[in-house]
């Protein structure tokens, strides 16, 4: 199974600041078709997860350009700029390249 | 797009439960669907997948105990949970599988508690 390792476990940021979350996979996430199926989700308190980023760097419909994804192979990053109060919650990376689909353990974002 | 789970509850170890996920706002029959669970205070744990043509894949932890199925006429996804264990206690989410191999829509979740 592909193990997804997220760091840090938690972080605290001031409003308007910028944060980066790292996600590393135990195997390359490059699919046989050449695509890399790494996505990012945000679970706000008391809610179900919502999709932010897919295929490493593509923002999902309606997602602010304050969110950006990058990386390749086994090393990926989510950056959030100009942090707003509504950004708080737990961020998960997930891979859809191979079964079983796996997620990182999550990064909790708190607002100072 | 809307996904609404139902059927959760409190069940004794070794018993069974069936979850449903009612889909609307899209052509249900054209999409693969997943079940993902989240134990209390824990992260996301993928459970099972069913393709648009009803091919299935399971996580090792539930293989042989859980069955994912779908009824396209009713726009409904199911998860039959048998031989339940305390470690199956979780919120169970259904999610749509997009062509970009990502879960792009999630339900609000159904809570399953396995306890005597």
Blueprint of the fold:
The complex is a heterodimer of chains A (112) and B (116).
Chain A: E1 4-7, E2 10-13, E3 19-25, E4 38-43, E5 50-54, E6 58-59, E7 67-72, E8 75-80, E9 89-95, E10 102-103, E11 107-111
Parallel strand pairs in A: 2-11
Antiparallel strand pairs in A: 1-3, 3-8, 4-5, 4-9, 5-6, 7-8, 9-10, 9-11
Chain B: E1 2-6, E2 9-11, E3 17-24, E4 32-38, E5 45-50, E6 56-58, E7 66-71, E8 76-81, E9 90-97, E10 103-106, E11 110-114
Parallel strand pairs in B: 2-11
Antiparallel strand pairs in B: 1-3, 3-8, 4-5, 4-9, 5-6, 7-8, 9-10, 9-11
Tell me what you see in this structure.
Chain A has strands at residues 4-7, 10-13, 19-25, 38-43, 50-54, 58-59, 67-72, 75-80, 89-95, 102-103, 107-111. Chain A is mainly β and 112 residues long. In chain A, a hairpin with a 3-residue loop joins strand 5 and strand 6. In chain B, strands 2, 4, 5, 6, 9, 10 and 11 form a 7-stranded mixed sheet that branches. Chain B has a 4-stranded antiparallel sheet with strand order 1-3-8-7, with no helix packed on it. The model of chain B has no long low-confidence stretch (mean pLDDT 97). Chains A and B meet through strand 4, strand 5, strand 9 and strand 10 of A and strand 5 and strand 10 of B.
Q: Supply the number of helical segments of chain A.
A: 0
Structural class of chain B: mainly beta
Rg over alpha carbons of chain A:
13 Å
H and E order of chain A: EEEEEEEEEEE
Taking all Cα atoms into account, the compactness measure Rg of chain B is 13 Å
Contiguous runs where pLDDT drops below 50 for at least 5 residues of chain B? none
Mind describing the biggest β-sheet of chain B?
A: 7 strands, mixed
Cα shape of chain A: globular
Beta strands of chain B, count: 11
What is the helix tally of chain B?
Answer: 0
Global morphology of chain B = globular
Describe the oligomeric state of these chains in a short phrase. heterodimer
How many strands, which pairing sense, and closed or not: the largest β-sheet of chain A?
7 strands, mixed
Order of helices and strands of chain B: EEEEEEEEEEE
Separation of the first and last Cα atoms of chain A:
36 Å
Strand content of chain A: over 45%
Mean pLDDT of chain B: 97
Counted beta strands of chain A: 11
Helix- and strand-based class of chain A?
Answer: mainly beta
């Amino acid at each position: 199974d592909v193990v997804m390792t997220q760091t840090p476990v938690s972080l605290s940021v001031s409003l308007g600041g910028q944060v980066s979350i790292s996600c590393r996979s135990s195997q390359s996430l490059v699919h046989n078709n050449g695509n890399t199926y790494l996505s990012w989700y945000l679970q706000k308190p008391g809610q179900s997860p919502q999709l932010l980023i897919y295929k490493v760097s593509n923002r999902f419909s309606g997602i602010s350009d304050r969110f950006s994804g990058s990386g390749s192979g086994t090393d990926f990053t989510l950056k959030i700029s100009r942090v707003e109060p509504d950004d708080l919650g737990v961020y998960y990376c997930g891979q859809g390249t191979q079964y079983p689909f796996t997620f990182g353990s999550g990064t909790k974002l708190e607002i100072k | 797009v809307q996904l609404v789970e139902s059927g959760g509850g409190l069940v004794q170890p070794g018993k069974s439960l069936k979850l449903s996920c009612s889909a609307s706002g899209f052509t249900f029959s054209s999409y693969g669907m997943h079940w993902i669970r989240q134990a209390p205070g824990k992260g996301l744990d993928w459970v099972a997948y069913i393709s648009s043509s009803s091919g299935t894949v399971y996580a090792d932890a539930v293989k042989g105990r859980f069955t994912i199925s779908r009824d396209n006429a009713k726009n409904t996804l199911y998860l039959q949970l048998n031989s339940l264990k305390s470690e199956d206690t979780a919120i169970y989410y259904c999610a749509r599988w997009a062509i970009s191999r990502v879960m792009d829509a999630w339900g609000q979740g159904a809570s399953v508690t396995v306890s005597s």
